[in-house]
Amino acid sequence: MPSNEPELVRFIQGNEACVEGALYAGLEFFAGYPITPSSEIMEHLARRLPRRGGKFIQMEDEIASMCAIIGASLTGRKVLTATSGPGFSLMQEALGYAVMAEIPCVIVNVQRGGPSTGLPTQISQGDVNQARWGTHGDHAIIALTASNHQDVFAMTVEAFNMAESYRTPVVLLFDEVVGHMRERMVLPQPGRIALVERLRTSVPEGVDYHPYLPREDGRLPMSDFGGVHRYNVTGLYHDMWGFPSDNPKVVHGLIRHLVDKIENNVDAIARYKSYYLDDARTVLVSYGATARSALHVVESQRRKGQKFGLLELQTLWPFPYDIVGEACGRAKQVLVVEMNLGHICAEVKKALNNPRNVFLINRIDGVFISPTDIRQALRLIDGRGV
Amino acid sequence: MAIDKYLRERFFPHMWCAGCGHGTVLNALVRAIETMGMSRNEIVMVSGIGCSSRITGYVDVHTLHTLHGRALAFATGVKLSKPELNVIVPMGDGDALAIGGNHFIHAARRNIAITALVMNNRIYGMTGGQYSPLSGCEVLAATAPYTTIDPSFDVVALSVAAGATFVARCTTYHVKEMIDILRQAILHEGFSVVEILSPCPTYFGRSNKLGDAAEMLRGFKEDTVPVGSAAKQKNPELIERGIFVQKEKPEYCAAYEKIMQKARSAAGETI
């Protein structure tokens, strides 16, 4: 039951909003390795987690961090790690393991400029495709993002909920500006946002338990390590008991299951915000910190009577093609505002019948894209000169 | 036999080559567990990738077959999350000390109560006989057709230096000794390392003309001596086996319990 007590207002960094969301969702175990611009997440959790009986460990690198949270998740805990681009690269193999072995976990990537060491203290959104395809092999993934601290909080809670619902790793793809900026956030009372808890098997001791046999609704009830069911977990293709198999039927069935459980639920996983889209002739599509500048432009154009609208994506993967198609299909032009060389722009083009009307407005120099930048790009696209 | 209940017999015969020592390790390991009467539900076995790592498939406990070199990192998550579980990590020499070397020294440094087995056959068997960081100099391998120039780690010295509080070595020839050492390692309250010399007649033996499995085992008998033996002083080439270090130091999960108490008593000073 939601409490009637007043909600707590905080003035905090985006990274702290993520910490609040994770604790609200029931985080019990964090493993990580320091890296700019995400370190505040682990610093705050180092203080907060032990107070509530949670476990915190600083590992020897990001590979170990990712592995440790998978191990902890198998004992029944809600788990998190946080990093930035270079660390996210190191985590990819184990992230694929979590996909394959269907281990719920949440990975935060507070994006900075890349490739390589890149621009450690400056913004980029260059890891969108790495979140999608960073680990090897066919797979599906869930990646969420947010443009303000209230949404960072909400999306972090959503990430934990989706990780449990779909037994999958979920990537939170924030960026340096949202991570480090300070703004107001209202901390919801416990119970106000519904939480998804670990679905545990009801199969009693002594009865054959199948950790990898989906129920009719597609969910796979788990059994904690240390419990009465002893089974195998592996990164190899495996049967319903978790034992390795290279039987083509088993292999086909598993890869279809891993992909379908996400791709068949695109609508349920899609989170987005619509601003003035009903009659918009020019639609901006953006996400993360850049959506703030995009919204500023849309609102100022509206005040001038121009029919601008904004689709702010919060679920980046699985990409909500139908929702983007619906939101942008009637627009004269679609402008994708992002801080990379067009990761989401390419997906928006795939979603639309007329991809020639889709333009990329970007900055790739570590400087946050401003409303002025967007307006200048608009003038060029309209052929009005600089 | 009472040890049968610790085995997943439906997967036998096992996949290891004839003469491989890893089956002997499996045998000794379940016998060590059996002597302690541990519940299968309180044991988690975590392995990486390689011939050695397939051992987890045959044991009826909670088993986690992970990534190459990363078993100790996964195991650290399991153990810290639920310290009441007994966590055993069988690894190969390449798995533990090449790709997994960093995790190995850091797990030892933390003194987290995990039992790490290094099943040392001085070769990468699963991938076809390439040399490992424990092959040593002047041996032949698939990737050393003109012999190796890479010196090997001394697992015992490395483990001690890194902070492990129980360090032992044994061989698949000395099975009763191995059972006893494994039992003590599992009971030890801290990070324990047991290096087990295990023959690979298929690759290491064949490429280095060491004879068949029986001859390689005879080699373990002739080339090793109990730790502290006078024979070692006369012949430094001999390899010592037995328990090298067994000491008490604060264990990581127990130390973390104290941190939680400290954090709770400090709570309230800030939000």
Account of the 3D structure:
- With 386 residues, chain A is α/β, with parallel strands linked by helices.
- Chain A folds into 2 domains: 180 residues, Thiamin diphosphate (ThDP)-binding fold, Pyr/PP domains (Rossmann fold, 3-Layer(aba) Sandwich); 110 residues, 3-Layer(aba) Sandwich (Rossmann fold).
- Helix content of chain A is 38%, strand content 19%.
- Chain A is built from 13 helices and 15 strands.
- Chain A starts with 7 loop residues before the first strand and ends in a 5-residue tail after the last helix.
- In chain B, α3 packs across α4 and α4 crosses α5.
- Chain B is globular and about 70 Å long.
- Chain B is built from 10 helices and 8 strands.
- The interface between A and B is large, with 42 and 40 residues.
- Return the structural class of chain A: alpha/beta
Distance between the termini of chain A: 56 Å
Indicate the percent of residues in helices of chain A.
Answer: 25-40%
Instruction: Give me the count of strands of chain A.
Output: 15
Number of strands of chain B: 8
